[in-house]
Amino acid sequence: MTTINIYYGGRGLIDDPTIYVMDKISKVFDELNVNVHKYNLYEDKRGISILPKTLKEADAIVIAASVEWFGIGGLLQQFLDACWLYGDKEIIQKLYMMPVVLSTTYGEKEAQQHITKAWEILGGIPCDGICAYVSSSVDFETDSDYAMLIEKKVENFYRTFTKKLVTFPSSSNVVIETSQAIKPMTLTPQESEELSMYVSDDNYVKKQKEDIEELTQLFKNLMDDDDTEENSAPSINSNDNITSRINIGNTDSSNTESSVDTASLLSNILNKAKNNDDKYITAFKSHFNPIPGMALSFVLCLTDQNRSLVLDMDNSKLDCYYGEKDNATATINTNHIVLDRILSGEISLQDAFMAGSLSAKGNFNILKSFDMIFNFKTM
Predict the structure, then answer these.
(1) pTM (2 decimals)?
(2) CB 3.0-4.6 Å disulfide test: which of 33, 88, 181, 185 passes with 189?
């Protein structure tokens, strides 16, 4: 059965002439055996971001605006924004749209052009709509000529989308093609729908903001700690830097030798990773500094070895094993090379996190205590 969706962006006032026109449109479609779904945006303002997924069930749509002062109104603009951000563009490209704009003040023509141009930019097919200025709702609703004109407009729209009549191309259609060509992140229609659901979930958005604030504070604290460490850094670091610069400067004259050394070094690392499967467990147990009254757990996911090391701490007891733990306090994703540098004391876990060598999720305040519990630099 043919389905029409009507999206109403007004406030739902009793004397709004747009409501009268929508009722006439629904009546005509009922006579044509067309199923009509009406969505009043003012009834569920938080759910506007997930409305684009309702487009897939429609054969054509009607966008109805009520101009009370200037423009199409914030709710309808929010719906169009959601179609741009989360709508399935392949579905929109096949949808015929009829704009309905009734104004009790100046600006109905501009509002209709706004809706039409927006739908063209989205890639859809705008059709001839209903646009009128209404000074008196009573006179407008009781005029039989206006009622007949509305019926004719709806019937013409029905013929257009049922017969899939071809329309002339518009330069506005190029916008969607250009924007998608340079868009850095492409999402599938299913991912777009999931994203729109997250956006409409106030609790999820609030939690994300809290996590960002917590992470920002963590970075500030780490920067203060870095300043303190730089002031008290041992002089051997400068010698290491000088040696590194000398080695880097000599690479041009010994490319072959460097390649051989690098290959042998990688081979040694891989062999050691295979032969010493328990070296990580031994290292963490030998460098464990328990904190009284603290029970927590870390999961180290070695992405290049497809295994996870669980560090489960309960006061002075440490349990290390390879496996999974769903309710870990923090989960750390890294590779064995970065982990080897941490165990050797070359860098701390916080240094690796700040440098982007590893990623983590969970309680960031607890994550900061990792270097206190496992202090590899002082051993």
Answers:
(1) 0.53
(2) 88
